[in-house]
Write a structure and sequence with these properties.
The longest helix has 19 residues, at 184-202. The protein is built from 12 helices and 8 strands. The protein has helices spanning 18-27, 43-53, 71-77, 94-97, 124-130, 133-144, 149-158, 164-178, 184-202, 205-219, 233-248, 264-269; strands at 7-11, 33-38, 61-65, 83-89, 220-230, 252-255, 260-261, 277-283. The chain starts with 6 loop residues before the first strand and ends in a 5-residue tail after the last strand. It is α/β, with parallel strands linked by helices and 288 residues long. 46% of the residues lie in helices and 16% in strands. The chain is globular. Helix 7 crosses helix 8, helix 8 packs across helix 9 (184-202) and helix 10 runs parallel beside helix 11.
Length: 288
């Protein structure tokens, strides 16, 4: 509040820890509002219930089920033209990863689904089944920088999996046979990258991110700030380029030259923080 921050928009709210949201609420009082977006219809109500249990009422916290790209529409519906801070957490939440029924991780057996909103779109299994081998290889390369994209695409099309364990097994066993010089660690990384690439495609994550990056400068008040947490190179590249382009165009007065990473203590407490990268930018006063 001392910095004049009043209206804050958080996208991907259920991936943010409750202490972070509590700290934001405390910082914007009195009179501030936290506008929280998340696309997951299953986890968002649970997250909101946690906030309410902490004594955060609707006059302070407003939630909407929507993804990053819908932030301008949500703010418009709420009569908010600009905000002081946008915090975008692009990661998949632990609740999603740890629920085998959602199909995000091969660590638990479940359907190969991966949809943030299970009621919309097609599952990862359906995507693999309808996509050609060539298209699938391009998808793996563009969405996850997978070096063995052609081999994995061929394996998946030859044995179209419908469960997470089946997908992991097809990739692991197939790479072991096709590329015997690969060690177990490299094969494990290829499995992880494949799951990432499919999830990004199923949820059009890059499309939503690029839409958010285009609208961001127009949603921030002069001096307003944007903070973005990314979790893989495809996301970070897009954020970095958008902030750099915005700075050259005079839309941002300053932007992070380097990423901010989790400390050793943070990574020790939460190993999933190891891949997190934080970038920030500040809205300029030009054109106002």
């Amino acid at each position: 509040a001392e910095d004049g921050i009043r209206d804050v928009a958080v996208t991907g709210v259920q991936t943010c820890a409750l202490p972070i949201s509590r700290a934001i609420v405390e910082a914007i009082q009195p009179g501030g509002r936290l506008i929280a977006l998340d696309a997951d219809p299953l986890e968002l109500p649970r997250t909101e219930a946690r906030f309410r249990a902490e004594g955060i009422g609707p006059e302070v916290l407003t939630t909407r089920r929507a993804n990053f790209a819908a932030l301008p529409q949500v703010l418009g519906e709420l009569g908010v033209r600009e905000v002081d801070l946008v915090l975008a957490d692009l990661g998949v939440s632990s609740m999603q990863f740890d629920n085998p029924d959602r199909g995000f991780s091969y660590k638990g057996v479940g359907p190969l689904d991966m949809r943030m909103n299970p009621g919309r779109g097609e599952s990862a299994a359906s995507l693999v089944a309808r996509t050609s081998e060539e298209e699938l290889a391009v998808l793996l390369d563009e969405n996850a920088d997978e070096p063995h994209a052609l081999v994995i695409a061929r394996l998946l099309k030859a044995n179209v999996p419908t469960t997470t364990h089946a997908a992991e097994r097809v990739i692991r066993q197939g790479l072991e046979a096709a590329l015997p010089r690969l060690d177990k660690a490299a094969i494990k990384m290829s499995v992880r990258r494949t799951f990432q690439a499919l999830r990004v495609a199923v949820n059009d994550e890059f499309g939503a991110l690029e839409a958010l990056l285009r609208s961001l400068p127009h949603l921030l008040r002069p001096g307003g700030r944007v903070v973005m947490l990314t979790f893989h190179s495809g996301e970070d590249r897009r954020v970095k380029k958008a902030f750099q382009a915005g700075a050259r165009a005079g839309l941002y007065s300053d932007a992070a030259a380097d990423v901010v990473r989790a400390s050793k203590a943070e990574t020790f407490a939460n190993r999933r923080a190891a891949s997190a990268k934080l970038r920030w930018a500040i809205r300029s006063n030009l054109g106002r």
